[in-house]
Amino acid sequence: MNNDINQIRKKIKSNTNQSTIRLGIITSIVLILMSAHWMTSTDVYFSHTVHMFFRKLFFIPAILAALWFGKQGALRTCAAITLLYLPYVYISWHGNFDENADQIADLATVWIAGALAGVLFQKEKTQQNMLLQTHESAIIALVNALDAREHDTQLHSLRVKAYAQRLGRELNMNDEELYSLGQGALLHDIGKIGIPDNILMKTGPLTDSEWARMREHPTIGRNILRHANFFDTAIDIVYSHHERFDGSGYPCGLKGDEITLSSRVFSVVDAYDALSSCRPYQERIDYHEALRRIEESSGKHFDPKIVAKFASIGEKEWTAIANSIKED
Fold it and tell me: What is the pTM assigned to this prediction?
């Protein structure tokens, strides 16, 4: 619970900082354009043309506000521009009907541009959110399909998603990278759908031929997802999550930085969950023993830098994440 609250606080702080920066950019553009417009002489034709040019650029901050803050942000920016500009119109051009008409027309253009941009950007954002929800529903449906065959797959996938994204944040991955990491974590074992039940459900040791068949699941998973464009970002983990840092993994025998960062991150948390969870073939072990085994394989199975980051997070936080994901 405390872990969730801390992540929410960090997200709010990050969003607040981003909004503050964007608001500062818009404010700066408005003030620069307003100052340039006011200070440019209108005594000669060329300078008057430049003076009018600055006035026509007021639509830029309005559109930026629409992009970053939606329709309401665009309208508020238009209102601020109007309040700053009208006193100048009254002071400098009082009684000049032709010039006043041009000035009001330019202001109206700013309002129209801001309002239209706000509506369009808001509509696009809504469509993106709907697509994202559909995308996530498809992922959950695939995970549930595998869980129907191999019980506890769903809980394992949810845990490794949470673990992977936490470790990704420690490695300063951005939001897009974290989302892709979460996708891959949820779907990493989807290829097991193509593994026969007598192998997938076997409680005893697998034979060499059975292991060879089991090792096909990354390729099967990649082939399942490769025809759906919205799963592109998940394929790296699905295909490479059994690669090892020293090159002894499968299916391609990649090593070191040849393995994508997301797959190197995932392999650590996948191993941790396998060690710290009850499985048909082994009892769970505590955090310290799990960490010892992971560190023992650092540089062999796992990237040493990522193992060090994993260890730096600590038992309390990893345990809190695990406890937050329970079967309904």
Answer: 0.64
